[in-house]
Amino acid sequence: MPEGPSIIILKEAVQPFLKKKITAVSGNTTIEKERMLNKKVVAFRSWGKQFFICFDGFSLRIHFLLFGSYLVNEEKEAKPRLRLDFKNGFINLYSCSIKFIEENLDDIYDEEVDVMSEKWNPDKAKSYLLAHPEMLVTDALLDQNVFSGSGNIIKNEVLFRTSIHPKNKIGDLPAKKLAEMIAETRNYAFDFLKWKKQFVLRKHWLAHTKQTCANCGGTITKEYLGKTKRRTFYCNNCQVNYSLDKV
């Protein structure tokens, strides 16, 4: 599933089509795609893992789900969910969820919880988490209501870098450790963006998909944790389970 930094890269890649009219629409989506024909794109926006193509009076929301992808000025054999043509190029969107949004995006998407946004507000994240002390940290870091744009890679890497065991609940964490986790989520998201652009993201993974701990040389454990049972990689030696102190 593309995480927030990957959506930023998409937003940057399509900038040549800003203020340009759509000259043709195609694809196997069942939405009224012809609605966009001859319409000018007034903005490209992102919120967490969602990408928006904005027109005068409405927007198109794209969510890439688990296996979605896109190509700009390129295509593959698979039929796209949606293809948008412009005089200067085209966008292909594959295996994604597409819907029209009629409302003003600012009224329904809070940029203060988007980890990639200039308006990101760590205090809002802290308040939300403190109000949910029974939430597992693995669930918290995937909760788009508090860390919009954070996904499974960010979750695993942030917990490893902050030495937080994934089986902690929010209420188990010392105040300083909670603040560190919040700050590192945004910090790592921008590292992710930088490394993704350089095509070296995987080289920087310390825990995600690993078998050996980069710190102690011990075994990395793989479990499916949290409400969504996403893959979680962690080191029992280096990541502290504060909940054990309360037993």
TrEMBL record:
Record-linked Pfam families: Fapy_DNA_glyco, H2TH
Q: Can you tell me which residues the record assigns to a coiled coil?
A: none
Keywords, A to Z, come to: DNA damage, DNA repair, DNA-binding, Endonuclease, Glycosidase, Hydrolase, Lyase, Metal-binding, Multifunctional enzyme, Nuclease, Zinc, Zinc-finger
Q: Name one GO biological process term.
A: base-excision repair
Q: Which reaction does it catalyse?
A: Hydrolysis of DNA containing ring-opened 7-methylguanine residues, releasing 2,6-diamino-4-hydroxy-5-(N-methyl)formamidopyrimidine
Q: Report domain FPG-type positions.
A: 206-240
Q: Which GO terms describe its molecular function?
A: damaged DNA binding; DNA-(apurinic or apyrimidinic site) endonuclease activity; lyase activity; oxidized purine nucleobase lesion DNA N-glycosylase activity; zinc ion binding
Query: Where would I find the Formamidopyrimidine-DNA glycosylase catalytic domain in this sequence?
Result: 2-101
Family that this chain belongs to: Belongs to the FPG family.
User: Which PANTHER family does the record match to this protein?
Assistant: FORMAMIDOPYRIMIDINE-DNA GLYCOSYLASE
Name of this protein: Endonuclease
Q: What is the lineage of its organism?
A: Bacteria, Pseudomonadati, Bacteroidota, Chitinophagia, Chitinophagales
